[in-house]
Amino acid sequence: MRTATWIRVLPIVGAVSVPFAIPAAGADPAFPDFDLAVICPPVAAGRAGGVVRVPALVILRTTPPDEIDLGGARAWSIGVRGAGGARVVHATVDGTAGDLAPSGYRQEDGYMKTELTFRSEDAGAVSAVILTFSKETALPSWGEEVLLALEIEAPVPAEGSADYSIQFADGLVGSGQPVKNAIAFGDGITRRDDGGDLDADADSYESCWLHVTMEAAFLRGDVNKDGGVNLSDAVFALDRLFQGGAEFDCADAADPNDDGRLNLSDAAFLLNFLFRGAAPPRPPYPACGFDPTPDDGTPCDRASCP
Asked: Do residues 113 and 24 lie in contact, with contact meaning Cβ atoms separated by under 8 Å?
């Protein structure tokens, strides 16, 4: 049985503190490895001078030592913020491991506090969860769990592109004391993912990187970028799909039915519109404009409109 020497509790968000501890001398040195990561879409596009908003998730990956089941996390405190001009605009545990059971693992007698931090020097989000105060409840001993769901806002440059990151940060302040990124497992043992003494490996937190570009204006159906929609656009698309022809500069323009896929149905859609009176291409059409479904998997790398 592992023994632990209790130390001063680690302050977290609000009025409650998680009782973290360090192992006593001579205690079993084998610990699970807890790895924290923020994941987000790698690329987003928006109108020049505006902003884009993308989702992000805080992930906990748990790996037991030598496949020994020592239990998973029972509590955690998280602090994340944007860098380079990005910022966290929403944070929630809804639908995550910290949600109330049965959606998550938190019991009715547990604790949760999640909020944004608004000080200019550390704007981000903090979250603290204790799954239960009275029951033997913990996350699985191995695998991946979502701890926090975020919405990130980042500026779109007036020209070119820009890179932003969402990263873990200690010391962010919500309505309580400064928050440290920490995991409590077992009988209240503190673990971290900073590559230090309380980490089971030498790696550290994984940030997410977001590449933001200007959204390109285009005319849907104008596959060859000649300014109109006609038979040659269907031929261009078919040549690319089946003969290894020139690549699409603007995949969105080559997706007239806007289903997020480039295939034979797109050429058929154009031909039916042109010669059978079927439905026209989806917006933007018949005038140049911006994609109303920018995250559908068919980006427009270069504008097809003046």
From this structure: no
> Rounded mean pLDDT of the chain?
85
DSSP class of residue 243 equals: H
Q: With contact defined as beta carbons under 8 Å apart, do 114 and 13 qualify?
A: yes
Instruction: Give yes or no for residue 182 having a pLDDT over 70.
Output: yes
Name the DSSP letter for residue 65. Answer: G
Chain center to CA of 263: 29
Look at residues 67, 24, 64, 72 and name the one whose alpha carbon lies nearest to residue 183: 72
Residue range 197-250, pLDDT digits in tens: 888 887 889 999 999 988 888 999 999 989 999 999 999 999 999 998 888 888
Q: Which residue is listed with tokens 């940030």?
A: 207
Give strand ranges (E) for 111-142: 111-117, 124-130
Going by C-alpha positions, the residue among 78, 96, 246 that lies closest to residue 167 is 78
Q: In the chain, where are the structural domains located?
A: 4-214, 217-306
Query: What is the domain class of 4-214 according to CATH?
Result: mainly beta
Closest CA to 80 of 30, 28, 39: 39
d(CA 169, CA 85) in angstroms, rounded, equals: 15
Fold of the 217-306 domain: Type 1 dockerin domain (1.10.1330)
Reference 190, options 9, 1, 64; nearest CA is 9
Mean pLDDT of 109-115: 97
Q: Which of 123, 112, 118, 114 is nearest to 92 (CA)?
A: 114
Nearest Cα neighbor of 199 from 225, 220, 211, 181 is 181
* AA identity, residue 113: K
